[in-house]
Amino acid sequence: MKIRGSNIVVTGCAGFIGSHLTDALLAMGNHVVGVDNLSAGRREFLEDAEGYPDFRFVQADLLNDDLRPIFKGADAVMHMAANPDVRSGAKDTLSHYRQNIEVTYRVLEAMKETGVRDVLFPSTSTVYGEPTVIPTPEGYGPLVPISVYGATKLACEALICSYAHSFDMTGVIFRFANVVGTRSTHNVLHDFTNKLNTDPKRLEILGSEPGTTKSYVHVADCVRGMIIGAEFTRNKVEMFNLGSNDRMSVKDIADTVTEVMGLRGVRYEWTGGVQGGRGWIGDVKNMLLSSDKLRSYGWEPTMNSSQAINKAVREIVGRGA
How far, in Å, are 29, 84, 225, 298 from residue 24 at the CA level? Predict the structure, then answer.
């Protein structure tokens, strides 16, 4: 996939990861058309991008608008638009279906009709469900997601694979660990910092102590990994895990948040959780990806999980990097 000096469309360009990817692509000398309906993304996240003459923003609805005029002449589509809220899938299944599966289908159809051959797609570690092999490699199976979010992302992967083979396209799929950093708007870090700003003496934590144990990667490492993986892709469909080498428990994260916020003696109040201590329905208890494949192409995270969490909390509370 050629992503230097190319014409690239980024859907979800005003979102958390999408806006960082947009900035990186522009810095590499690409012409970028960013597409977002601003329902979840924020226009201020595009402040850096809009300083580039090679950036054009299109406010459009991927579910309803004609995408062909936007995609015409593009060399690649970075399809970052999605509903990223894992927890909401247990209550609002339709929005996950429409915003993930249906939107991806419409993107692929528009690519097919306008002759765009390359698509990059951010998937998720949740497609693996609760694997028995940890660290989990890309070849692990069967894939049995336990959340609606994970299921819709897996369906999107299947659509991309089928279009790549049926219509002479190239698909590059990244299965992310939990991504943290600037411009994120919701995750456990926001939950904790918001609660502690309200009551610095106590912290309600979903689940049972010590909580789930997962891998975290900073958005800067994530974007760099996507670019390296895309540039090295030679197969019709390529899948990469992308995550750090270690894991943290929810309790570890709570300790980091309270330390960065300068709080002492915070009382942790565990809710007990659901389904054996999970924070919510569909919450995977243990996750650590094997990113050996991406590392073989020269990528290495600059931060482990603990460092990524520490940096992200400082970014959220405004205490610097």
Answer: 9, 21, 11, 18
Task: Check: CB of residue 124 under 8 Å from CB of residue 283.
Answer: no
Tokens representing 199?
């009551």
* Residues 193 and 144 grouped into a single domain: no
If one counts every other C-beta atom within 10 angstroms of the C-beta of residue 46, the result is 21
Nearest-5° Cα angle at 19, 181 to 191: 35
H/E run at residue 72: none
Q: Determine the average pLDDT of the residues in 106-131.
A: 98
Closest CA to 204 of 273, 252, 256, 147: 273
At 241 the pLDDT is 98
Domain that holds residue 99: 7-179+216-242
Co-location of 133 and 225 in the same domain: yes
CA distance linking residue 140 with residue 31, whole number of Å:
37
Contact in structure between 91 and 68 (CB atoms under 8 Å): no
Res 88 pLDDT > 80: no
Q: Is residue 295 assigned to a domain?
A: no
Q: Are residues 158 and 31 in the same domain?
A: yes
Burial of 167 (0-12, 13-18, 19+ CB in 10 A): middle
Helix runs in 61-187, H state only: 68-71, 93-96, 103-114, 148-166
Q: How far apart are CA 282 and CA 274, in angstroms?
A: 10
- The reply to whether 95 and 190 lie within a common domain is no
Distance CA 271, CA 280 (A): 11
Percent of the chain with pLDDT over 90: 91
Same domain membership, residue 224 and residue 107: yes
Q: Same domain, yes or no, for 139 and 156? A: yes
**Mean predicted lDDT score pLDDT of the chain:** 95
Mean pLDDT value of segment 97-125: 97
83 closest CA partner among 174, 16, 159: 16
Task: Please state, in angstroms and rounded to a whole number, the distance separating the CA atoms of residues 77 and 98.
Answer: 19
User: What is the rounded CA–CA span in Å between residue 76 and residue 298?
Assistant: 23
pLDDT at 321: 44
Residue 47 has pLDDT above 70, yes or no: yes
